[in-house]
Specification:
Layout (H helix, E strand, L loop, with lengths): L2 H30 L6 E2 L3 H7 L9 E2 L2 H10 L4 H28 L5 H9 L1 H26 L3 H4 L5 H26 L5 H33 L5 H7 L7 H26 L5 H35 L1 H9 L7 H30 L6 H23 L1 H8 L8
Antiparallel strand pairs: 1-2
C-alpha cells in the first residue's frame, strides 16, 4: 500500500480515536456525578522556563489516572492508551517549544536556556508517561519504541535479550544526556564531550556484541540493508546486463560480509582503530577492483559517477540553470580533476613530511589558494552567472 495513503489513514484514525476517547472520559465523569478538577500537566520547572512575559492560558488536561482508567474501563487496549498519552504529551511540548522559540527570538532567553529546554524532552516524556501508564506499562511502551528498528533488521530476540538490549540503550541515552548537559553548562569542551561520547558508543557496541553474538550483531548493524537498493540506484544510466548485475551483487555481498567481520574484530579489540581504517580501505579497493573487472573501465567510471552526491546534486540543479546532460557531465569531470589535483598535492606534501623532510605548509596552502582562484576564475568566465547560481547551491568545491 502507498505509504502516503497509510499516513493519511493513520492521521484520520488518530483524530477519530482521540475524539472518541475524550467523549468516553466525559461520559465517565458524568456517570460518576463528580467533577474532577483540571490540573496542570506541565512540570513546574518547564512552566517557569517557558512562561512568556504576558499572561497566557495554562496547558492542562484531566489527571492521568482518571482518563487512563476511563479508557481501561472502556476496554481500550494499553497500546492505544499509550499512543494517546504520547501524542498528548508531544502536542503540549510543541506548544511550550514554540513559545520558547518566540521568547528566544525576542531576546528574552539565551541560547543556553533554549537548548537546555530541548534536552529535557525525553526526561519529561518519561515522567508523564510513567504517571499515565505506571512503571510496568511505561516500560512495555518504551521498550517497544526503543527496539522498533529490530523489525526492519529481522533480528530475533528472546524476552530476556530484549530487556537487556533495552537497558543498554537507555543507559547509553542517559549518559549521553549527561554529557550534553555538561557541555551546555561549560563543564566540558566540545572536544572532550565528543571524545567521551565516542567512548560511550564504543562501550555500547562491545556490550551489544556480547548480548547478540557475532551473527546477530552484524545483522543489526546492517539494519537489514544488504546494499542492493543503493547498488541498483548507482547502476542507473550504466548499460549493465544480467550477468554483470549478478557479478556486482556478489561482490557487494562479499564486501558486506568482510566488513561485518572487521567491525566485530574492532569491537572485540582484535584490531586497533588505525588497523581497522587501513583494512576497511583495502576492502573498498578490493570491491572496486571487482566492480571494474565486471563493468569495464568506462562502465565503472559511470558507476562511480552515479555514486557521487556532487554529481547527483548537479543533475538536480543543472536543468534549472540551463545545463544539458552533457554540460553536467563535463562540469562534473572538470571538478573531479580539480579535486583530485588538490588531494594529490596535499598527499605528496604529507609523504615528504613522513619521510622526515620539512614542509612549508603555509606555502602549500598559498599554492592551493592560487590554484582555487585560477580555477574559479576560469569557470566563471566559461559559465557566466550560472557559476554563481551553482556556487550558492553548494555543489562547487569552493568556499562561498
Amino acid at each position: 500500500m502507498n505509504s502516503k495513503i497509510l499516513l493519511g489513514i493513520s492521521a484520520t484514525l488518530n483524530l477519530v480515536a482521540l475524539g472518541f476517547f475524550i467523549s468516553v472520559w466525559k461520559s465517565h465523569q458524568a456517570s460518576t456525578g463528580s467533577a474532577v478538577p483540571v490540573a496542570a500537566t506541565v512540570n513546574p520547572a518547564l512552566v517557569a522556563l517557558s512562561a512568556p512575559s504576558e499572561q497566557s492560558p495554562e496547558i492542562s488536561k484531566p489527571p492521568a489516572t482518571s482518563w487512563v482508567q476511563a479508557l481501561r474501563d472502556a476496554q481500550i487496549s494499553e497500546k492505544v492508551i499509550a499512543e494517546v498519552a504520547a501524542a498528548n504529551f508531544e502536542d503540549r511540548w510543541h506548544v511550550l517549544a514554540l513559545e520558547n522559540q518566540k521568547r528566544f527570538d525576542r531576546g528574552e532567553i539565551d541560547q543556553e536556556t533554549l537548548s537546555g529546554f530541548d534536552l529535557q524532552h525525553d526526561e519529561e516524556r518519561e515522567k508523564q508517561m510513567r504517571a499515565a501508564l505506571g512503571d510496568e506499562g511505561f516500560r512495555r511502551w518504551d521498550q517497544a519504541r526503543e527496539l522498533a528498528d529490530l523489525d526492519r533488521s529481522g533480528v530475533q530476540l528472546s524476552a530476556d535479550e530484549s530487556g537487556r538490549l533495552y537497558d543498554l540503550r537507555k543507559n547509553l541515552a542517559r549518559k549521553q544526556l549527561e554529557l550534553d548537559q555538561a557541555r551546555l553548562q561549560g563543564k566540558l569542551t566540545d572536544e572532550d564531550a565528543a571524545s567521551q561520547s565516542s567512548g560511550l558508543y564504543t562501550q555500547y557496541n562491545q556490550d551489544l556484541l556480547k548480548c547478540l553474538g557475532d551473527e546477530r550483531y552484524a545483522q543489526m548493524q546492517n539494519g537489514g540493508d544488504t546494499g542492493a537498493s543503493e547498488l541498483k540506484k548507482s547502476l542507473d544510466g550504466v548499460n549493465a546486463d544480467e550477468s554483470q548485475v549478478s557479478g556486482l551483487t556478489t561482490a557487494q555481498q562479499q564486501w558486506n560480509s568482510q566488513r561485518n567481520q572487521l567491525d566485530i574484530q574492532l569491537q572485540k579489540g582484535e584490531v586497533t582503530a588505525e588497523d581497522y581504517q587501513k583494512q576497511l580501505a583495502a576492502l573498498d579497493a578490493q570491491r572496486d577492483q571487482e566492480y571494474q573487472k565486471v563493468l569495464g573501465t568506462n562502465g565503472f567510471a559511470e558507476f562511480q559517477r552515479n555514486q557521487s552526491e556532487q554529481y547527483q546534486a548537479l543533475k538536480r540543479i543543472g536543468p534549472g540553470v540551463g545545463f544539458t546532460s552533457d554540460d553536467v557531465n563535463n562540469l562534473y569531470a572538470m571538478l573531479q580533476d580539480y579535486q583530485t589535483e588538490v588531494s594529490d598535492y596535499r598527499d605528496r606534501a604529507q609523504q615528504l613530511q613522513a619521510k622526515g623532510q620539512t614542509v612549508d605548509w603555509s606555502a602549500v596552502d598559498k599554492v592551493l589558494a592560487n590554484y582555487q582562484q585560477q580555477t574559479e576564475s576560469a569557470l566563471r568566465d566559461e559559465l557566466g552567472d550560472k557559476f554563481d547560481k551553482l556556487k550558492r547551491s553548494n555543489v562547487m568545491p569552493f568556499a562561498r
